[in-house]
């Protein structure tokens, strides 16, 4: 499935004077390419595939990367670039569809191959060209294509080949135009980062001096221009994404920002107080706290089915948010901390359940319901970039490094019925899990750690008495992207301390288990 990319036209008043543009032809990987370029300390942004040469000049582009895409260049509906971009003297790098397009536009031929090539391929690079400086002659690359260049015009020379793809890389003989049939941006391509580094530093001549702080300046400038005198509403959850979104907006428009925190009664212990105190330490602007615990608990009464829980929480959230937003006069925009992985998971995700899970509750449902214009300043970023940005913006490390917390909150960790009493048990157990992990110095090493309350009672003995009480599961995972995860191999003495403390300190719990399932096949959350 292809995601819809909204790219705003920017003006000439940019902070980063050296930038690479990724012309997006509908690739799943466009943002990954942009991220890889930013990793080389060169600013990069994604633009529409048919951007005009004039707009490219306004962007001060030092290089143009034509992304991959699902189309075939020979089909009528194939997205094309403006033909003038090849004559601008700006280095062009076509990747996959981008290479096929460049070759096709400049006199070559592209055909479908009998069997789609997907996966690793051994690539032979036979040139001393700048693009392949420092790359071994034989290198594993990642292919994902159904078409390939079958003939290049005499203006091009081949730079690499694989067993099934005779033109795996090309270069124009006179113009600074390159093409790669494989994907240098994915980690499966060995030395892919070096190839991109060669392109942006040696071929495009960027100095590699850009820092994420400049992204903040850029974004702030862009937000100012877009919002003008308007008012923006931002939903706060206490998580890093919404906090960084609010911080960017606050820097851009100050008191024109209004934030809404919906207390759904499914927050962790002291979470509302923490969010409010962090908010008032950093922002002198409007904060609306909606006390909606009863509303959510009523909506969840008697519900045990996980999907039904999510649906009801989603609807109740929209209801509360809408009501509060109506009180904010002149609000025209709604800001959301959507990250790139959210975009993948909610729209283009190939891996099933996450897509469904995220669709229900994420605030993504809000904009059309409420009639606001949507602002998503973090849409191109990955979690670790957002964290670094948060630090740049002066947010405290404690907030920036906080483990993710799902929108439906403790409801999806309180298996079975969600009641005030059961939530209180879970909250007490959860705070012990997290504080023990912090105490052991493992909070940053683990990606997400929490407690889960099962709808299971078992027999125990406390003192001399028989108990028949609840079971708490400790879950801790290590992951880079939250799409796959391994259970954390926590030290036994840490697990032992957690268990002892939970059983001793939390009334109603007599048994603690540790979850040793990875994702897949399990998920990180239990519901
Ligand atoms: P799963 O359980 O799908 O979780 O392996 C992957 C990551 O996503 C978080 N998660 C959610 N986040 N709304 C969110 O905002 C949700 O409905 C939701 N479900 C899961 C989960 O905490 C983990 O970080």
Describe this structure as you would to a colleague.
The protein is of the alpha/beta class. Helices cover 34% and strands 25% of the residues. The chain contains 16 helices and 18 strands. Helix 6 crosses helix 13 and helix 15 (420-439) packs antiparallel against helix 16 (492-505). It is globular and about 90 Å long. The two termini are 25 Å apart. It binds xanthosine-5'-monophosphate.
Element layout with pairings:
Layout: E1 19-24, H1 30-39, E2 43-48, H2 53-58, E3 61-66, E4 92-95, H3 97-105, E5 109-125, E6 138-151, E7 156-162, E8 169-172, E9 177-180, H4 192-203, H5 212-227, E10 231-236, H6 240-253, E11 257-263, H7 271-282, E12 286-291, H8 293-300, H9 306-326, E13 331-335, H10 340-348, H11 353-361, H12 366-370, E14 373-375, H13 383-392, H14 397-400, H15 420-439, E15 448-462, E16 465-478, E17 486-487, H16 492-505, E18 509-514
Parallel strand pairs: 1-2, 1-3, 3-4, 4-9, 10-11, 10-13, 11-12, 13-14, 16-18
Antiparallel strand pairs: 5-6, 5-7, 7-8, 8-9, 15-16, 16-17
The chain binds xanthosine-5'-monophosphate.
Xanthosine-5'-monophosphate binds at residues 354, 357-358, 361-362, 404, 406-408, 448, 482, 519, 523-525.
Content of β-strand: 25-35%
Reported for the largest beta sheet, the result is:
9 strands, mixed
Q: Can you count the helices?
A: 16
Q: What structural class should be given to the helix and strand makeup?
A: alpha/beta
Bound molecules: xanthosine-5'-monophosphate
User: Which stretches of 5+ consecutive residues score pLDDT under 50?
Assistant: 1-15, 345-364
- Please give the number of β-strands: 18
Shape label: globular
For the termini, the CA-CA separation is 25 Å
